[in-house]
Write a structure and sequence with these properties.
The complex is a heterodimer of chains A (231) and B (734).
Chain A: E1 2-7, H1 14-24, E2 31-36, E3 47-50, H2 70-80, E4 84-88, H3 90-97, E5 104-106, E6 114-122, E7 138-145, E8 149-151, H4 154-162, E9 166-170, E10 181-185, E11 191-194, H5 212-223
Parallel strand pairs in A: 1-2, 1-3, 3-4, 4-11
Antiparallel strand pairs in A: 5-8, 6-7, 6-9, 9-10, 10-11
Chain B: H1 5-10, H2 15-25, H3 31-40, H4 43-46, H5 51-54, E1 64-66, E2 73-78, E3 81-89, H6 91-96, H7 98-114, E4 119-129, H8 135-155, E5 159-166, E6 175-185, E7 200-205, H9 215-218, H10 239-253, E8 258-263, H11 268-280, E9 283-287, H12 300-305, E10 311-316, H13 321-330, E11 334-342, E12 346-351, E13 354-360, H14 361-365, H15 396-404, H16 413-416, E14 427-429, E15 436-440, E16 445-452, H17 455-460, H18 462-480, E17 483-492, H19 499-518, E18 523-529, E19 533-534, E20 537-538, E21 542-552, E22 567-571, H20 586-590, H21 604-619, E23 625-628, H22 633-641, E24 646-651, H23 658-663, E25 670-674, H24 677-686, E26 691-699, E27 701-705, E28 710-715, H25 716-732
Helix pairs in contact in B: 7-8, 7-10, 8-10, 10-13, 18-19, 18-21, 21-24
The chains are: A alpha/beta (231), B alpha+beta (734).
Chain lengths: 231, 734
């Protein structure tokens, strides 16, 4: 599996994602490489990861400028062709701004940046990002964001739930996200955005290895002959 | 413009200093030159009041690669890697404009680190404010914390620890000291020594504007009623630009085309150019017309003194400029050749085709006046003797809860949860612990770090207070399992022109020197912040120590007790806690509202043996939890161990009064919970320190007493709530 980690100006979790995939993920062949935001194509990657950080300083609005980066055209095409795209934190914000995922991420309810470990419930295993997890499983992952409050209109939220596209929910909602949403899937189930950081929880030294399950799911999905796409 | 006495005074130069300038130049300075001298010879840049005393600090040691004098100190950490670290203050700007003042404080220290080639991997902050019942102090705290979060989070460096203390004396003079640490390979260190006659001098990063002009001079004066007018002197930070600058600098350094590099901090273009020139023994010619500018019509004076942020000056190898330019273009940053290295040792500034300043670099950087300011006995108003009657506590349980919920001792979660402390995936132990521990992925070594200062102690005895701060930092590191190896210090004091304040500074420096020599933690750099006075009211003398230790990468035991039925050991023993030394404690402050006597007594030899002992206990895997005693003494330390779900039943056989035993702050002590007390006692015996089993853990309550009487009985949930709710409660009413 080759994962392209996109580097936008201001990305600051790119190295962490790269390290987690190359050094913490065990077993089968895996490799992460950086893709500069001005690249017009993604070469031969099996999955794309949009890392956390403050792309373009979060100026204007989180992710609002990054979505115009040349590489995003390639990412959109890759996603349209069924390629796996995971957006973490700022990556989630960019995916939302780019229209690859519905809704918006607003400032946290108490208007402050929050860094802490939170508990999440796995809501679906029917996705290439969660296939190795158990439904109802509790994950402990760090969050670190100022603008992570998931917002969408009631119809969109109903739709997400009806189509089993809420992948992760907060158990103790830290930021006021509607219906405790922490991570969602697109309709094709090949694009996921999540505010918590799985790449920061892949090493026992970091206090949790619960992020590995997500990376392992992606690894298995990219290696299996039949893509884990249903619906 | 003619140089009048008023103009000289406005530049905070004395008549003697002006005469010295005239004799160094062999003529009267121009207006521009006067401005350049005024910032370079300011207290902030020249350390003119402290320099002769700073020489007393130990700066050599087996780990030291670079001592004071560069942008940051550097130590070897093994495996061919080094760590660069330093602490800096941004006290004055943070008072005037808390958010930007603190933000640019973080930005400045980060540049000091990566200008040396080291990628920043950790930040810590030491903060002091006035009491939070005053809305202005709440606003300052809120602004400072948001500013630190804004800058550090966006830049992508974890803020892994720090301290936050409240006293009246910081109401008009908040202290914002920021520590940063970075790592790189030993053969990838960059220095700020210009060399190679004819080499181009290249300006990179943000454009120059009018912000921050005379910031360094502002930081070298007391505050008056007019100080709030100085808001335009505070710079505005852009952490996104700094992040780009970091990546671009590190990438450009890898080209091999860079000879020297220095950030533009205080006194901006002036200090970076003359210091690089002075260190390298060369001259530098700059053409200001080429400087990227954000505003039009700037004068030479304004450009030279601007403290616009996120700028660097570098010297490249002649003919290889394009390699450098290419990297900066990739990161969409300005990079322009604005000058050249010359052989005449002078800083020569051209503007609109004319030479507007021509000053020997050495005159600016090294010939600054040095004052042997007179000093007397350290200022203190507190009585030495204890009050004739120290009232007996009516309810020790209530006292403990009050202490645990006091602003100084309560959980600072409200602050540190606003900082990203997990980015870069190196943080093994983050905020809320005795020491922060950050791994270095490439080497299997981790770096432990701790910040500490105690203004109350230092006010009562600056020398002993400073030694106690060193001891406490080292104890913090040892409690994580690390060996302390080097230190940085931030000396926050009042007006050095007052002999009794100067005396505080001298005593504190000598105390630090003695303790750092003893604990083998040489000072590799630091910062002096004087004139922390508003309307004649000075701060407590507040030296803040940042000490760095090394350890094999491992997870240190937690502060909290983990399970029911473990033995609780007090390493170091009860020590003596007398009335004379009780007036400096948090108990005296919070419960008695008094200050008297002396700080706790430190026996450095004993302290050092305690450190060696706890390290061996940890290495032997005997400690299930470990927490060192500090502010609030044994009682508060036990309470902190009980903020998980596990409590303890403790029996103390003390000769002293219960309050003294519980809340005396005698140093050199560590609480450990263990399954095997005998082996710990054995180890302690070998190190010749006391080790006492004082009780055992149990569910849900903390009970403390002597053989006969229960002193304290509280629920662990109450302790936790008191600790956690204080800051949110105080600050949400803001």
């Amino acid at each position: 599996m080759k994962v392209g980690v996109i580097v936008f100006p201001g990305s600051n979790c790119d190295h962490d994602a790269w390290y987690a995939i190359n050094e913490n993920l065990r077993g089968k062949q895996r490799k992460a490489e950086f893709i500069w935001h001005q690249s017009a194509n993604l070469s031969d990657v099996d999955a794309v990861l949009l890392p956390g950080g403050f792309s373009y300083g979060d100026y204007l609005r989180c992710g609002a400028i990054a979505r115009f980066s040349p590489v995003m055209n390639a990412v959109k095409k890759f996603a349209a062709d069924g390629g796996l795209v995971l957006g973490v934190c700022n990556g989630f914000q960019i995916l939302v701004e780019a229209g690859l995922l519905p809704g918006a991420l607003l400032r946290n309810q108490d208007l402050r940046f929050i860094c802490r470990h939170v508990r999440l419930r796995v809501e679906t295993t029917n996705s290439p990002f969660t296939s190795k997890l158990e439904k109802g499983q509790i994950l402990r992952l760090p969050i670190a964001h100022g603008e992570g409050r998931y917002f969408a209109d009631a119809r969109t939220l109903d739709e997400l739930e009806a189509e089993d596209r809420v992948a992760l929910r907060y158990i103790d909602n830290p930021n006021g996200s509607m219906r405790n949403v922490a991570g969602i899937l697109n309709r094709g189930r090949n694009v996921m955005g999540m505010m918590p950081h799985p790449e920061r929880a892949c090493d026992p030294l970091m206090g949790s290895v619960d992020g590995l399950g997500i990376l392992e799911s992606i690894l298995e999905s990219t290696l299996s002959a039949v893509p884990a796409l249903t619906q | 413009m003619t140089i009048t006495p008023e103009l000289i005074e406005q530049h905070q130069l004395t008549t003697d200093e002006f005469q010295k300038i005239v004799s160094l130049l062999g003529r009267e300075p121009s207006y521009t030159e006067l401005g350049v001298f005024s910032v370079m010879w300011s207290e902030h840049c020249s350390y003119k009041s402290s320099r002769i005393h700073l020489k007393k600090l130990p700066t050599q040691g087996k780990y030291v690669v670079q001592g004071p004098g560069e942008n940051a100190g550097i130590i070897g950490i093994g495996g061919g890697w080094v760590a660069a670290f330093k602490i800096e203050s941004h006290n004055h700007p943070s008072y005037i404009e808390p958010f930007q003042g603190a933000a640019t404080g973080v930005g400045g220290i980060l540049r000091d680190i990566f200008t040396m080639g080291a990628r920043p991997i950790a930040v810590m902050d030491s903060l002091r404010f006035g009491p939070l019942d005053n809305p202005r102090n709440r606003r300052i705290l809120d602004g400072v914390v948001s500013g630190i979060a804004h800058y550090g989070n966006c830049f992508g460096v974890p803020t892994v620890g720090g301290e936050c203390v409240f006293e009246d004396c910081y109401s008009g003079n908040p202290l914002v000291n920021v520590f940063a640490l970075g790592v790189c390979k030993e053969n990838e260190i960059f220095y700020a020594r210009a060399s190679g006659i004819g080499n181009p001098v290249i300006y990179v990063g943000a454009k120059t504007g009018r912000d921050g002009i005379h910031g360094a001079s502002m930081a070298s004066a007391e505050f008056t009623e007019e100080s709030k007018q100085k808001r335009p002197n505070v710079q505005v930070g852009d952490p996104f630009l700094e992040k780009l600058l970091l990546e671009a600098c590190i990438e450009a350094m890898k080209t091999g085309a860079i000879v020297a590099i220095q950030d533009m901090g205080a006194a901006g273009l002036t200090s970076s150019s003359c210091e690089m020139g002075s260190r390298g023994g060369v001259g530098i010619d700059l053409d200001l017309d080429r400087v990227p500018q954000r505003e039009s019509g700037m004068t030479a004076y304004e450009m030279l003194l601007s403290e616009s942020q996120e700028r660097m000056l570098l010297v490249a190898e002649k003919g290889r400029e394009d390699e450098v330019f290419q990297v900066f273009r990739k990161w969409a940053l300005d990079a322009v050749t604005i000058g050249v290295v010359t052989d005449d040792g002078k800083l020569r500034i051209r503007h609109h085709g004319a030479v507007v300043a021509e000053i020997p670099n050495k005159a600016l950087a090294d010939e600054a006046p040095r004052y042997h300011r007179p000093y007397s006995a350290p200022y203190r108003k507190a009585p030495m003797g204890p009050p004739t009657h120290i009232p007996a506590s009516k309810d020790l349980s209530a006292d403990l809860l009050r202490l645990v919920g006091s602003p100084d001792l309560c959980s600072k979660r409200w602050i540190w949860e606003q900082y990203d402390y997990t980015v870069r995936t190196n943080t093994i132990t983050g905020p809320g612990s005795d020491a922060a521990v950050v791994r270095v992925k490439e080497t299997g070594v981790s770096i432990a770090m701790s910040l500490d200062g105690n203004g109350r102690y230092c006010y009562l005895d600056p020398r002993e207070g400073a030694k106690l701060a060193v001891a406490e930092c080292c104890r913090n590191l040892a409690t994580a399992g690390a060996v302390p190896v080097a230190a940085t210090n931030n000396l926050n004091f009042g007006n050095p022109e007052r002999p009794e304040i100067m005396a505080q500074l001298v005593e504190a420096i000598e105390g630090i020197a003695e303790a750092c020599a003893y604990f083998e933690t040489p000072i590799t750099g630091g910062n002096v912040s004087l004139y922390n006075e508003t309307l004649g009211e000075g701060i407590y003398p507040t030296p803040v120590l940042g000490i760095v230790g090394l350890m094999k990468t491992a997870i240190p035991p937690p502060v909290q007790f983990l399970r029911v039925g473990a033995h609780v050991i007090l390493l170091g023993g009860l020590r003596e806690n007398h009335a004379l030394r009780f007036g400096s404690t948090e108990y005296a402050k919070v419960i008695l509202n008094q200050l008297w006597g002396l700080p706790p007594q430190l026996d450095m030899a004993y302290e050092k043996r305690v450190h060696a002992c706890i390290r061996e206990v940890l290495e032997s895997g005997l400690a299930e939890s470990a927490h060192d005693l500090s502010d609030g003494g044994l009682g508060v330390a036990l309470a902190e161990c009980c903020t998980g779900e596990i409590g303890a039943r403790i029996q103390l056989n003390a000769a002293d009064r219960a309050e003294f035993t519980l809340f005396g702050e005698a140093p050199s002590r560590i609480l450990v919970s263990t399954a095997d007390p005998d082996r710990i006692h054995e180890i302690a015996l070998r190190f010749d320190i006391e080790s006492v089993t004082i009780g055992a853990t149990m569910g849900g309550r903390l009970q403390i007493g002597d053989e006969t009487i229960p002193w304290i009985d509280v629920a662990t949930t109450d302790l936790k709530q008191m600790s956690e709710n204080t800051l949110p409660k105080l600050l949400h009413t803001a």
